[in-house]
Amino acid sequence: MNTVGKPPANPGRDDVRIMTLQAHILEQQAHHPQAGGTFSWILSALSISAKIIADKVRRARLENVLGSLGSENVQGEVQQKLDVLANEVLLRTLGGREGVAIVASEENEEPVILREDSQGIPRYCVLFDPLDGSSNLDVCGGVGTIFSILAHDGRAQRAEDSLLQAGVRQVAAGYVLYGSSTVFVLTIGKGVDMFVLDPSIGAFMRVEQNLRVPSGNKTYSVNEGNRKTFPEGYRHYLDWAQSSGYSSRYAGAMVADVHRILLKGGVFLYPPTLKSPEGKLRLMYEANPMAMIMEQAGGKTMAGPKARILDIQPTAIHQRTPVILGAADQVDAVLTHLASG
Ligand code: AHG
Ligand code: MN
Ligand code: MN
After folding, report:
1. Is the CB of 98 under 6 A from ligand 1?
2. Which three-class secondary structure state does DSSP give residue 195?
3. How close is the Cα of 14 to the center of ligand 1, in Å?
4. Which of 20, 125, 216, 237 could form a disulfide with 102 if both were Cys (CB 3.0 to 4.6 A apart)?
5. Which residues keep their CB under 5 angstroms from ion ligand 3?
6. What is the per-residue pLDDT for 1?
7. Structurally, how many domains does the chain consist of?
8. Residue 261 above 90 pLDDT?
9. Residues whose CB is less than 8 angstroms from the CB of residue 181 and which lie 6 or more positions away in sequence, other chains included
């Protein structure tokens, strides 16, 4: 039958509806009272930041902003020029939002207090890794932005008192992957939704709702260069996986590795090492938001044989944690070996 020129049979159907991130946020706001106006404005600031950073990442070589800045951040890590630029973009966009009380970033030693009193408005703390995997930039590898949103405690005496909440209390979390396309993944505690930037119209378009991490994918993602200094249980796991038909995939950017696992299954590991006995990844703006997304997609996330990442009570904004996250079946396979290691 020739259907050219005819309207779709049912243009209101969910699978044919065009939904932008902006419209999705408004839809959520209508369904969930906790997603009120000030909160929605924060998500919109993150969406604008993502578009600006995506543009900077794409033009980095042309505008000569690749390479290191010659400085180190609070973690003692070399800052790339784009780490600093992305941080400024986020600080500027979030800074204008009434609902943001405090921001904390990988690139700033101290949290930035924007608004102290609540004035009857629900306010939030936003924590972020402005550019994750930034050493991939020079080689056109995938990089990302990770964010975590917590409710601000207006009674807190110090910024830390409001910020240092366990990951289980996150109101929302997400990441942006600047890869072959720019992808925005978001949870506000009701499943995980995915949006892709359409550069021709400058909008994030919803492409997936309620993502579920698939099981049965025999793939692990870990920096095996560190294997000799992993605790014994992790080495047992790798021995077992390598004799059980597993594949290895490692992008060197958590956002890129976690995104692959969210869509395809498998497990991501950053164990303790001799160099980083607490693990390398940061609890509050890398592990917690990724753990919330993974659990909201039906996956599992642990900081070791016993501790669930989201239950860790933080004691410092930049504290680190070991990370095991991915499909529940694949995380359980790791845990079996940690228990016997
Ligand atoms: P960042 O660029 O924000 O410092 O993060 C880099 C992190 C993370 O993205 C990645 O999973 C990990 O570092 C890679 O570390 P190794 O090079 O030690 O494998
Ligand atoms: Mn990072
Ligand atoms: Mn970073």
Report:
1. no
2. strand
3. 38
4. 125
5. 106, 129, 131-132
6. 47
7. 2
8. yes
9. 196, 197
